[in-house]
Specification:
Blueprint (H helix, E strand, L loop, with lengths): L1 H5 L4 E5 L7 H11 L4 E6 L4 H9 L5 E4 L4 H78 L1 H20 L4 H13 L9 H4 L8 H7 L2 H9 L6 H8 L21 H16 L10 H10 L7 H18 L3 E4 L8 E3 L3 E3 L4 E3 L11 H14 L3 E2 L2 E3 L4 H20 L24 E4 L4
Parallel strand pairs: 1-2, 2-3
Antiparallel strand pairs: 4-10, 5-9, 6-7, 6-8
Helix pairs in contact: 4-5, 5-6, 5-11, 5-13, 6-10, 6-11, 9-10, 11-12, 11-13, 12-13
């Protein structure tokens, strides 16, 4: 027994009849201490009791009767040793699997923790990237506002429309954001143009000026593609002057070859120009602007986009109508009210939006503005508007707009006093050094 404790043993062959301890008792003790050792019992033919005990108590591998056949015994020994090896291999594999399972469990726990940490890092990074994205948009809008404040107001209203139309057409959220950003920056390509060119109407331009004007989508794309996150925005802007019938620019794309996002921006751009025309004090009703777009459905615009605009117009009505109008310094009159602080182009603060209990521009201020302009030669930038209409009149006008939209959708005819003038192409002229007021009479 001491040998099996100190040496590796694979097989024990024991006779039943032994002087100090019977074979069945000996093999039973071996089984208790080393159950993996293979056990073979040798006994005579008549010793059936020993055979039963060997099987039941000692659980021997084989019971061999005397006299034995040597070949059979060698074969039995060989099979017993193979069985021992199989048991040992199985135990080693089981132990290996157990250890590996434990390692996998620990790894999974660590992986879950790492995934949570990584997810948190990515969320933080996404927030930072989203913030930097908006900062980039604000930078471009700031540059545009320095050139022409009208450009930014038009861009913001168009962006509201573009995002809502994209949502109505079930575009993914990232494409909705691209549409919104493209509408905000669609006229960024005009920043380097001379004021004399951008103030002209398209029909007033000569061939060279028109050719230069039609390059502004390409210039916008070229400026934005250097910023990775704005590159898709530039691609949308490139095609926002393409027409559904193929008559647009710069590439002459037609129908479904025009990116849907570009068509959304085109409809939003043109609709806002119809509803809030620059340098015009009176704005047309929303129903007339919708009618003008519908007449161009299938020609300039994708019918599906025009339909989507018609479906969301009530939702965004109050966000896309502007009561502000650009006026030159020569047109500045006593009684107007500032919509924003008035500053020079160099940032010199001149007149606040609200001056205590006297919100109007008095004659002495218009005289001072003219004097400073002649002295320092710095054009003024800012927003001017005439005093608001009475609250009941404002409510009445909004109610009329909503009623006309509902009547239009229900098929009821609307008597119009005039027809909306459709711009030859969507553009907003910049007017450097000008001021803004509302579309309301003083």
């Amino acid at each position: 027994m001491s040998l099996i404790e100190s040496h590796p043993v694979a097989l024990i062959i024991s006779d039943h009849r032994m002087p100090e301890m019977e074979g069945t008792e000996f093999l039973a003790k071996v089984r208790e201490r080393k159950p993996d050792i293979m056990r073979i019992m040798l006994t005579g033919y008549a010793d059936m009791k020993a055979a039963v005990e060997a099987i039941n108590q000692s659980q021997v591998y084989r019971y061999i009767s005397k006299p034995w056949n040597d070949d059979d015994l060698r074969l039995t020994v060989r099979e017993a040793l193979r069985q021992f090896d199989l048991v040992q291999s199985n135990r080693e594999l089981t132990e290996l699997v157990r250890e590996q399972n434990k390692e996998l469990y620990d790894m999974n726990r660590n992986l879950e923790s790492k995934i949570r940490e990584r997810t948190k890092e990515l969320e933080t990074k996404n927030l930072e990237l989203e913030g930097s994205f908006h900062e980039m948009l604000d930078l471009f809008l700031g540059l545009m506002e320095m050139k022409n404040a009208a450009l930014v107001g038009h861009a913001r209203r168009s962006a509201v429309l573009a995002k809502e139309i994209a949502a109505r057409l079930a575009l993914p959220e990232d494409e909705q954001r691209v549409c919104e950003a493209a509408a905000l920056l669609m006229d960024s390509g005009t920043l380097g143009y001379p004021d004399g060119l951008v103030k002209k109407r398209i029909e007033e331009m000569d061939d060279a000026e028109r050719a230069l004007w039609q390059k502004h989508p390409l210039l916008a794309q070229a400026g934005l593609k250097r910023i990775t996150r704005l590159e898709p925005v530039g691609q949308v802007i490139r095609s926002h002057h393409e027409h559904f019938d193929g008559s647009g620019f710069p590439d002459g794309l037609k129908g479904e070859n025009i990116p849907l996002s570009s068509q959304i921006v085109a409809v939003s751009d043109t609709f806002d120009l119809l509803l809030n025309p620059p340098m015009v004090a009176a704005r047309i009703p929303i129903s007339e602007a919708l009618d003008a777009l519908e007449k161009e459905s299938g020609k300039r615009f994708d019918p599906a986009v025009v339909k989507a605009l018609d479906e969301i117009i009530e939702k965004v009505q109050e966000m896309i109508t502007s009561d502000e109008l650009e006026v030159s310094l020569e047109e500045l009159r006593e009684g107007m009210t500032l919509a924003r602080d008035l500053k020079t182009a160099g940032g010199f603060f001149f007149f606040p939006r609200r001056a205590g209990s006297r919100p109007r521009i008095w004659r002495r201020y218009t005289t001072s503005i003219g004097s400073i302009r002649s002295l320092i030669g710095s054009p003024f930038t800012g927003m001017l508007k005439i005093l608001d209409l009475p609250a009941d009149e404002k409510r009445g006008r909004k109610a009329r707009d909503k009623q006309e939209i509902r009547m239009k959708k229900s098929g009821v005819g609307i008597q119009k006093k005039g027809t909306a003038r459709f711009p030859p192409d969507s553009r907003l002229p910049t007017t450097g050094g000008s001021i803004w007021m509302s579309r309301r009479a003083s």
